[in-house]
Amino acid sequence: MVSWFTARRIGQLCALALVIAADVVALFSPVYSNGDSLWASYADSGRNNLGAILPFMVVPLILVIVPLLAGALSGGRGEIEVAALVCGFLLLGGCFLAIVTVGLWFLPAAFAMIASALFPGERREKVKPHCDS
Known about the structure:
There is one protein chain. This protein has helices at residues 7-28, 47-74, 79-97, 103-118; strands at residues 32-33, 39-40. It is mostly helical and 133 residues long. It has one domain (15-118). It has a two-stranded antiparallel ribbon. Helix 1 (7-28) runs antiparallel to helix 2 and helix 1 runs antiparallel to helix 4. It starts with 6 loop residues before the first helix and ends in a 15-residue tail after the last helix.
């Protein structure tokens, strides 16, 4: 029986934790001044600005969850490696596209996702045929 907590999945869970942390930072960090020398965050500024940042928060979360679901649904076959690499590079590309705003906060999650795809997979014992001579 192969354990579900392999090095690859632990790396993906770390990437998930990093994305959640980046979402919290993106939501509550001061990003602009509202004119009264008070810094406002996206959470403080109302629904209009929150709608602008919401896709930048949800898409990285989806990109990190997809490889975890692929690994759970595939039963540990090779789909998890491909899904983790594709989603990791998509997340990395999104980080570079949004590097001026919130992309910088998602870079550690992108690197963790790509690194988790490069971890060795589960070891499976080969079944040797039993021959009586």
